């Protein structure tokens, strides 16, 4: 998590970082220096012009093609993708108590005694996600938005074209170089926010929870722990899920909505592209979708190991009746306190993940076949 927030602060993605509080003796959210926060606010404000453009353009296409279903999905995708960025801004300007609560718990919980994951592995995962998100941001800015990133002159020339779209400048009017640079920053940071939120912040948080949960359930099945100790740590596990959901459930809902609205119409189009680097990027997106669905579902699958523990050495006979009833109640599928949620109610289970993948594949296949045979859809 420290690597995650360090990268966010260094790229002006967020105005906070994770530092050590000598009073609390814990790592917690701390504000960046004032100049860094001012830069962060500036690029977030400038990116708003790109966000408006990203939403209004598919809206115009939709109004011109009301009889086709694809423009509706494109408009929904761009709306979800861009509007939810402001939730990310809110979380790190005014909602940091949710992040702090999660950070405090993963440092003080008794579940840490079961931790078997090396620190270097967690740092490696976080840096890897940052590298991937920056690569995808670079590629998306260059290929999709047509901004030349290989030279300063290329940035200025393509920045002027971008400025005409973002700042509503007529083609006949000359664009000042400064507006071209601002347009370049707006588009670049808009794309970066998409990728860092989806490819970095969301999976690293999910992976943190998954590693803690995996170590806990593997330990209670491998070692002879007392009944009271296991039940106490089981309550800690549920508290971990609650705090993780308070922090990242909206992020996960944002990701699921984005993935469904895009891949339901464009999945096979992106896989069939002939551009090598674009295809590589699409494969990375597809693997990322699989990982998020898998890791969320895996947490629920691990939670089912509590049943195995109850059967182990007939532990269920040694638990007070009321406590046993509460524990068995938690075994009901899709219980909110057992797994990560996408939004307020959708617990991401293996069944939910399978439904998402099936819908994306079937809808996209229908759209691709319809386009091939020129069927109105």
TrEMBL record:
<feature type="transmembrane region" description="Helical">
    <location>
        <begin position="124"/>
        <end position="141"/>
    </location>
</feature>
<feature type="transmembrane region" description="Helical">
    <location>
        <begin position="251"/>
        <end position="268"/>
    </location>
</feature>
<feature type="transmembrane region" description="Helical">
    <location>
        <begin position="192"/>
        <end position="213"/>
    </location>
</feature>
<keyword id="KW-0472">Membrane</keyword>
<feature type="transmembrane region" description="Helical">
    <location>
        <begin position="69"/>
        <end position="89"/>
    </location>
</feature>
<feature type="transmembrane region" description="Helical">
    <location>
        <begin position="345"/>
        <end position="366"/>
    </location>
</feature>
<feature type="transmembrane region" description="Helical">
    <location>
        <begin position="39"/>
        <end position="57"/>
    </location>
</feature>
<keyword id="KW-1133">Transmembrane helix</keyword>
<keyword id="KW-0812">Transmembrane</keyword>
<protein>
    <recommendedName>
        <fullName>Odorant receptor</fullName>
    </recommendedName>
</protein>
